[in-house]
Write the structure tokens for this entry.
Amino acid sequence: MKYLAPVLVAFSLALSTIATPHDAMHPDQDAWYRSLKQPDVPAASCCGEAAAYWADEVHVKDGKTYVTITDDRDDEPLHRPHVDLGTVIEVPDNKLKWDAGNPTGHAVIFLSRNGFVYCFVQGSGI
């Protein structure tokens, strides 16, 4: 019985992660979001506890990649912490993802609640 509560909590969290859309306007893209794996940790998802933000401004300075948050969607339906428009984030080279395409029409960065970068997927330009 003492093991049942932690199992139920973990199961509930897993279901809430699965049920949370990454973009309420495009639920058809949820399978793509769920399929993304971290480039440097291929067994780990880009999303889950991470939140996805559009970051359509990409620039390189001194050999480092930086993105600017351009996502003006409401945070509440996406169950994510707020990150101000215009926030600039350095993307470590080992978090640049090039092998999964991108159906969103936006560059997307996946951040933990404390700002750790899980993945960055370049926009497709569609």
